[in-house]
Design brief:
Layout: H1 9-36, H2 45-52, H3 57-64, H4 69-76, H5 80-88, H6 95-105, H7 109-113
Helix pairs in contact: 4-5, 4-6
Length: about 110
């Protein structure tokens, strides 16, 4: 048998808001734990804005890491011309190439594909 409880709308709204606040706090705690464990990183606003404005994710993350195209090419094993062509949008790059670049930059493949 299902029991029903009737409460005033005001009390329901208060309980709903408290549940949403709790969910927000739990999300915050998980994010802080990922940061503390080195599983995630904060990206400075100017770099985040570049990504949001549609700039090449490869270029933004390369700049964030302080690498030149040549240094990224050497670190990833990808030809420097290929790095430049992906950054400018002339080429998309294969999954293997993007994975090598992502690994060299310490980001996920999804971060470069976004």
């Amino acid at each position: 048998m299902t029991e029903m409880v009737t409460i005033p709308r005001e009390e329901y709204d208060r309980l709903l808001a408290a549940a949403e606040d709790l969910a927000d706090l739990q999300s915050y705690d998980r994010a802080k734990a990922r940061l503390a464990a080195g599983e995630d990183e904060l990206i400075p606003a100017d770099y985040a804005n570049r990504l949001l404005n549609g700039e090449s994710a490869l270029r933004v993350y390369r700049d964030l890491r302080g690498l030149t195209q040549a240094a990224l090419a050497e670190k990833s094993g990808v030809n420097r011309v290929t790095v430049a062509e992906i950054e400018t949008g002339r080429k998309q790059g294969s999954i293997a190439t993007l994975r090598a670049l992502a690994d060299a930059l310490g980001v996920s493949l999804d971060d470069l594909a976004a």
